[in-house]
Design goal:
The structure holds three protein chains of three kinds. By secondary structure, chain B is mainly α. Chain B has five helices and no strands. In chain C, strands 1-2 form a two-stranded antiparallel sheet. In chain C, strand 1 and strand 2 form a beta hairpin. The termini of chain C are far apart. Classes of the chains: A mainly alpha, B mainly alpha, C mainly alpha. Chains A and C meet through helix 16, helix 17 and helix 19 of A and helix 5 and helix 6 of C.
């Protein structure tokens, strides 16, 4: 008799996932069986039920030290935090979608279930304690994301984005599998704990080869330099609500996957991989920031800025400490609010037929849409890392972890980088407040759901900037509990 | 003796048989070259253009990909069927979930009209 | 009121900013009135603070201490001592004056006054904060309103000036951030509490102190601005609207020197002693001479004042570096005096700019006959800036030089002779603008009006009174500064001694 393990622990681990996936399937069927498509916002409500349900289930069921399916998957503090961040990202992208999709002429109702499915993939990645499960999560998430990137079928750029994302994603998957195989060959296991235990006795050459391949594969997913070339094109080409999901949710899941793998499974090898990731982080943040300075398209600027932020996150992983992991988690939460907010503003400026994504299109926004401009200022400042906004606390926490682990130079490079980033974030503020509008622009009321999304992002950006304690403690403790 | 030897022998036999078939027909078959035969398409009509210009309706691709999707899923059932009894009720339940997910996909495909040829 | 007075002073303007934002856009007088209203209570509280400040102790007073982010051991910890009290008074006074001086702003005035009040709150916060993190938060919050105030309401090259100001300060503050975290980790248990950090200063190794000192110093030096980080200042001043120039020169520049006194001196005494003896004193002297020489070459009235600020801030650095009680007292007094004198100067430049719409020194002439009252006020301010005996700046400069004489006679002679340069460019400017043949174009210019005089009067009184009788300020600051001086000298000796012992 082969025992199929499915007890309380397993049920607990998959319940949040089940909530999200089942909602996705119900939503999918409901949309194809119901002929009445008059209200574009309707599918959002159903999907939001899944999002909220997933968050509630996560909050109710998580437990530090939890482990299920023979230790391959867990709903511990780290994965609970990831679940919340990813679901939040997905929820906010859903909120900004309906009006936007209508305005660009996308009628595909599959959008909403696909976002949920992508989110479920992210949740799997966050809880993965085994390379195979990590791989599964990446694939579940990525396949949905490929489709989402190309959901604007009549737009050439969207198609290009989808194809590029797919090809490079498939490429990265190849590296990932190869890396997993080599690591398995060297250590005899794919489970994180078993790998960590077997590393001291394993063949160093094989292990390092495997780790290098894993770094490449995950580097693709987090868009680290030099594996970032797809990111600007994909971010710019994909529909903006999808870009927000990719820049925030997918990045969050990939970074958590990265952090858990390297801080837990590969901890004994910290000496070896730290230097590689150090360079990766420095290159990523520097190239991201310097290139962002030269952009004239806001979406593309945000794409490069998101590369730079990936660099900051990697820098905290270099620390290799639970503190670094906690900092990463908190920063992801911070980044969710401020970056989704920025994309929501980008969406709110779009009109039928014109995206208004150039810097010039933002000229004089302060006089046309004072509240939206003010919100954008907030997000830009938070991304720069100005107190008392959440981006500052997040960055402080990252730097704190880096300094504590003794990587002073990395911290110095990082703060200099955020000074560079001030330039292009400020440039947008400058356009909005200190330039006159290029032409008479019609004042368009943003959709109510979009306003809700902006409001949530604004509140999050300010509130967690002033009272960061609860999530901060949670993030730190959950990584401490992994040891 | 290594148990995988048998597998290797099987591979080798396959290769040899295939090689013999192709090689023999190439060696033994009569070869008469003429103009009509070296045309790219032997229907009697003169060729109209490059063969690369031929287009299939996208319907073929759709059908093919649907076939692949559902076909591959069935592959999972073979190993399951082999150990079906030893998995017990839990195994049956899990397969039921799996099939249910597939059914959702099928229902979706049906409702969006992907199964209709025209 | 006693315990929370500082909190009120910080957050009332913030409340004011929010209230102003909620007012209707077109109610100009209502907006002006509300903004003014919210700067009056802090001013009254400042007077109260002045009366109730215990002059005999060097301890922190009016302290509030509440945990804020416990996981980082960050506190909302504010209080004042002799070093910060003068700055708090100056900020309260100048904020009030500048709000009144801003009544002429027409463009998007709601946003202007809201940002101004936000700036006010942040400045107050910087001077009251006793937790490094809190200090940094206020320091950064200040950046944003300043950026907008220069960038939106400034002159023709405002964008350039605004972004230059922002980037310079940003680079400085990120270095400060790293130094701050280094201090945080070096202290065991980790803390941002400035007093705690200072009390453990004996345990920091000299090498660490030097690195941290430099990081902090660059951040502060940009703000002072010390050569070679000064280039943002003339641009910012020239483009900024009058009231903002006043705040910039009157308050913001002081934050640099204040930060050094508040953080570098007590927390890193050994490094302070090292660097004061060559870096700080050299930069101070160089600032004095270089600023004066640059000022002499200017033809733009406002730029001239801006460079004179650089020169005068040099005296502050010089005084601090002497490590004598006269020098340090003189430095802090000079911070206060420069705040009032330079505020007057910028207000006066604003007066003429509002009328003539340019600031070319050579484009005027004979204004004394056309605007006699205005010329009288200018003469007072110019004489004060020159350091004429009987006016406030004289006392502080003399104290600084007296202190300097004991430790650095040669550099003191250089610095003292720069007074001649100052007198030179001030008098020459005076001559070109106010004396000589009246320029035909400006014959009909109206003289200084009541509102403008109202903004100048309190400053004028302070300049004259402190010139004759500086005790009111010196009494405030003396106890804390004497203590600081002893602490730095004493601790540095201990640190050097232990470091020496550790060498085998």
């Amino acid at each position: 008799m082969i025992e199929v393990v499915f007890g309380g622990a397993e049920l607990r681990a998959v319940t949040p996932l089940l909530v999200v996936v089942v909602t996705a399937m119900i939503s999918l069927l409901y949309e194809v069986f119901n002929e009445d498509h008059s209200d574009p916002a309707r599918p959002v409500w159903l999907s939001l039920v899944g999002i909220v349900g997933g968050i509630v289930a996560t909050v109710a069921l998580w437990e530090n030290g939890h482990s299920a399916f023979h230790g391959t998957f867990a709903l511990d503090g780290v994965s609970a935090f990831t679940n919340v961040v990813c679901l939040l990202a997905a929820g906010l992208s859903l909120l900004m979608a309906p009006g936007y999709l209508t305005s660009i002429g996308v009628r595909a109702r599959e959008f909403y279930p696909l976002v949920l499915l992508a989110a479920s993939g992210m949740m799997v990645m966050g809880g993965a304690r085994d390379l195979i499960v990590l791989f599964l999560g990446i694939e579940i998430m990525s396949i949905a994301a490929y489709v989402l990137a190309g959901i604007h079928r009549t737009d050439v750029k969207s198609g290009e984005a989808a194809l590029k994302y797919f090809l490079l994603g498939a490429f990265a998957t190849g590296f990932l599998l190869y890396g997993i195989a080599i690591l398995y060959g060297a250590t005899g296991s794919t489970g994180y704990d078993a790998i960590a235990a077997a590393l001291p006795k394993a063949s160093k050459l094989l292990v390092l080869g495997g780790v290098a391949l894993l770094i490449v594969a995950l580097g693709f997913k987090v868009s680290a330099v030099p594996f970032h070339f797809w990111a600007p094109d994909v971010y710019q080409g994909a529909p903006t609500s999808v870009t927000a999901l990719m820049a925030v949710g997918i990045k969050a899941a990939a970074v958590v996957g990265f952090a858990r793998l390297f801080i837990v499974a590969l901890a004994p090898l910290h000496q070896d991989w730290a230097m590689v990731v150090w360079w990766l982080a420095v290159l990523t943040m520097t190239v991201g920031n310097v290139t962002a300075v030269a952009q004239n398209n806001v979406k593309r600027m945000l794409a490069y800025s998101s590369i730079a932020h990936a660099g900051y996150l990697l820098a905290a992983i270099v620390a290799g400490t639970p503190r670094g992991g906690g900092a990463v988690l908190f920063y992801l939460l911070a980044y969710t609010f401020m970056n989704v907010g920025a994309f929501a503003v980008v969406i709110s400026l779009g009109r039928k037929g014109e995206a208004n994504e150039q810097f010039d299109d933002y000229a004089g926004l302060a006089s046309r849409q004072p509240l939206i401009a003010a919100a954008m200022v907030l997000f830009m400042l938070s991304l720069t890392g100005i107190p008392p906004l959440v981006g500052f606390v997040g960055k402080l926490y990252l730097i704190e972890a880096i300094v504590q682990a003794g990587y002073i130079w990395l911290a110095v490079i990082m703060v200099l980088n955020s000074a560079i980033s001030a330039y292009y974030y400020l440039r947008l503020i400058f356009e909005m407040y200190m330039r006159d509008p290029a032409g008479p622009a019609s004042a368009m009321e943003p959709a109510p759901l979009l306003i809700a999304c902006l409001l949530l992002a604004t509140v999050g950006t300010i509130f967690f900037g002033i009272f960061p304690d609860a999530p901060l403690d949670f993030a730190r403790n959950s990584f401490l509990a992994l040891r | 003796m290594n148990p995988y030897i048998a597998l290797l022998i099987s591979f080798a036999l396959c290769a040899i048989v295939a090689g013999i078939m192709c090689g023999a027909s190439w060696l033994l078959g009569p070869k008469v070259e003429n103009k009509a035969k070296s045309e790219i398409f032997e229907t009697g009509n003169p060729p109209l253009g490059s063969i690369r210009g031929i287009r299939f309706p996208v319907k073929f691709y759709l059908t093919a990909i649907l076939f692949v999707v559902f076909d591959i899923e069935v592959v999972f059932m073979y190993p399951w069927a082999v150990v079906f009894r030893r998995l017990g009720w839990m195994g049956l339940g899990e397969m039921a979930v799996f099939v249910a997910v597939l059914a959702v996909g099928l229902a979706y495909v049906w409702r969006v009209g992907a199964l209709e040829w025209d | 009121m006693p315990t929370n007075v500082l909190t009120w002073m910080i957050f009332l303007p913030l409340v004011g900013a929010i209230v102003v934002l909620c007012l209707p856009r077109n109610a100009a007088n209502l907006i002006r009135g509300t903004a003014t209203f919210f700067t009056i209570p802090p001013l009254i509280m400042a007077v109260w603070l002045y009366q109730h400040f215990d002059r005999a102790t060097s301890d922190m007073q009016f302290v509030t201490k509440i945990p804020w982010i416990p996981s980082f051991n960050i506190q909302y910890f504010i209080g004042v001592d002799g070093i910060s009290i003068t700055m708090v008074l100056l900020t309260a006074l100048l904020s009030f004056i500048c709000i009144i001086a801003s009544f002429g702003i027409e463009k998007a005035m709601k946003a202007y006054f809201a940002l101004f009040l936000l700036l006010d709150a942040a400045m107050m916060g910087v001077f009251c904060a006793l937790d490094f993190f809190l200090f940094f938060v206020f320091w950064e919050v200040m950046l944003l309103p300043m950026y907008f105030l220069i960038g939106i309401w400034g002159g023709p090259r405002r964008e350039y000036a605004a972004i230059k100001f922002f980037l310079y300060t940003m680079v400085g503050s990120v270095l400060m951030l790293v130094a701050m975290l280094a201090l945080y980790f070096y202290a065991e248990p980790h803390t941002f509490d400035l007093l705690e950090l200072a009390s453990r200063s004996g345990s920091y190794s000299t090498g660490f102190q030097r690195i941290a000192w430099i990081g902090l110093f660059i951040g502060f030096a940009i703000k002072i601005p010390a050569f070679p980080f000064h280039t943002w200042l003339p641009d910012a001043h020239v483009e900024a609207p009058t009231a903002i120039s006043v705040i910039l020169a009157g308050v913001l520049l002081k934050m640099g020197t204040y930060g050094i006194l508040r953080i570098n001196y007590p927390i890193l005494p050994a490094a302070t002693l090292d660097f004061a003896f060559y870096l700080l004193i050299a930069l101070g002297t160089w600032n004095i001479v270089y600023g004066a020489l640059c000022a002499m070459a200017q033809t733009d009235f406002k730029k001239l004042i801006a460079y004179s600020s650089i020169s005068h801030m040099g005296y502050v650095m010089f005084g601090m570096a002497t490590m004598t009680s006269e020098g340090i007292n003189g430095a802090v007094l000079q911070m206060f005096n420069h705040g009032t004198v330079t505020a007057m100067l910028f207000l006066l430049v604003g007066v003429i700019y509002d009328r003539a719409h340019h600031r070319e020194i050579n484009g005027f002439g004979g204004l004394a006959g056309i605007m006699p009252f205005y010329t009288g006020w200018t003469a007072l301010a110019f004489f004060a800036a020159m350091g004429l005996p009987g006016l406030s700046a004289f006392i502080s400069e003399v104290l600084v030089l007296l202190g300097g004489w004991r430790s650095y006679p040669a550099l003191t002679i250089v610095s003292a002779s720069a007074v001649v340069l100052t007198a030179g460019y001030m008098l020459w400017t005076m001559q070109r603008i106010y004396l000589g043949k009246a320029n035909e174009k400006y014959v009909g210019l109206p003289d200084i009006n009541g509102r403008e005089i109202f903004t100048l009067v309190p400053l004028g009184i302070i300049v004259v009174v402190l010139g004759v009788y500086p005790r009111p300020v010196l009494d405030l600051i003396n106890a804390s500064l004497v203590h600081l001086n002893q602490v730095v000298a004493g601790k540095a000796q201990v640190a050097l001694a232990t470091a020496g012992n550790m060498v085998p």
